[in-house]
Amino acid sequence: MPSPPPTAHDLRTLTGPRRAAALETLLSDLxxxxxxxxxxxxxxxxxxxxxxxxxxxxxMLGDRTAQHLAHxxxxxxxxxxxxxARIAEAGDWRxxxxxxxxxxxxxxxxxxGHDAALGWLHAAAHGAxxxxxxxxxxxxxxxxxxxxxxxxxxxxxxxxxxxxxxxxIAHALVQILARPDITAADSERWAEPVVAxxxxxxxxxxxxxxxxxxxxxxxxxxxxxxxxxxxxxxxxTVTHRPAxxxxxxxxxxxxxxxxx
Length: 260
What we know:
Elements: H1 8-13, H2 16-29, H3 35-49, H4 55-68, H5 74-90, H6 95-107, E1 114-115, E2 119-120, H7 123-137, H8 142-154, H9 165-177, H10 186-189, H11 192-198, H12 208-226, E3 228-229, E4 235-236, H13 241-255
């Protein structure tokens, strides 16, 4: 029977080749098609280990995880943002990791929430979690973060969100819009592509991307209006509340002409 993977405490006792081998095993397990290995074990291990890695190890883990965003297997791609979020929270972030994520997130075609064999995939939600972590850490300009979330929403797809992805993207957006350095203009400007896309609507069935975007904006309006809880349980709100509410209501008014 194989020995159990080292815990966070055990990792700190490993040095040299044994420590490097443990990190290689972690990277391999984070690509595993077995949801128990990938999600319940490897990702949990990653969360425990990342705060105890040195700068070189964080850089290596981030470089290799960012490469997973171009992996041919969907589960490897969709768990990469979660690990990158933990690395960003630990204090490291690189422009090349952002570039890899920004290429992948709007382009990902497999938006299934859960698969019977692979377990949780959740590309849209996991990408939103990374955007939220970057917003909290002020790792990228808020306009760039919001624009990437919007690009994901507006990308053509036939998949209708069915696992609260809309809520997760709204939660990311509200954290971006709560950045103290965001301007009033940027608090509205992010919605301009949504307005333009909604204005192209024609009679007939509502496209999946449009429905996904509408539901995300409705969730965002509630969070922007009433506030949201941060990681410490404190209630926060967006920096320029009137501007955000005006932008969201203006976009939704195009597809809901009965709204006031």
